[in-house]
Amino acid sequence: MVDYNLGCTVRLNDEKTLALLAGLYEDGAIRHIQVQAVPLARQFFLKRLDRIAATGIPVVVHAPHHGHGVNPCAPAAYDDRPPGEIEEYIEEAMRQTLEVADTLDAETIVLHAGRYEPGGRFAAVETFADFLDRNADPRLTLENLPAVYAGYPLLGNTAEDLAALAGKKITRFCLDFPHLACTANYRRLSFVDELERFEDLNVALHHLSNIRRGSITDEHLALDHPDGGLDLAAVFTRLRRHPKVPTTLEYKEDSADVYARQVKVFAGLWEDRAGE
Prior knowledge:
Layout: E1 6-11, H1 15-26, E2 32-36, H2 42-55, E3 59-62, H3 83-103, E4 109-111, H4 121-134, E5 140-143, E6 148-149, E7 152-153, H5 159-166, E8 172-176, H6 177-187, H7 191-196, E9 203-208, H8 232-241, E10 247-249, H9 256-272
Parallel strand pairs: 1-2, 1-10, 2-3, 3-4, 4-5, 5-8, 8-9, 9-10
Antiparallel strand pairs: 6-7
């Protein structure tokens, strides 16, 4: 058994990747999976949920985000659906998310605060606070987001931001390394300094992939990508300092080849830092 808790991400409706990850779990290469809860019709939702439960793999749940039509801090931003329809959709998506966590006995539900329109940060903060009032759950785990993506700003980029947004409503946090690197590049901050500030938060989960050198855009690149620019030395120093905090690999290309290879790359990087 490895001395770290590594996991991989799978969408609720991706049975091919689930089968691959079940094999990695049986081999001892990973110790958890992160299930991306995506809104599904009831019959398909229950079927997919049963398939995941049958694997017996420990689960972290990721709540739907703006890419799935769930944008907590500014529900109507960049969305032309009627407000009432958006509200009903978000409520149902969060109900399904909690059901996934309940059924799979997950202790962690990763949450994005979301994106907002330029100039709307103050309103976004207030709207997110209202969202937390309506969706209070001790398993909610707030993730840091890149400062910008595709030209729009996102809420909650640094450790300080997350602490302010969480207040007393959220006590757990997810540190996404490439998101933090994108923010540091965009704001011209020190990645290492910003990483150190997360020592003051109760980090319950790490997210890991790579970004291009100097990039402000989150692309979920492979750890060994030839253009990779994430400070892996700093990342793995933290990971080895906090070996009990689970680390989840996240790739947009959910394929057997990607995860099977990246799990091995992670193991090699972990061993490279063993003597430090």
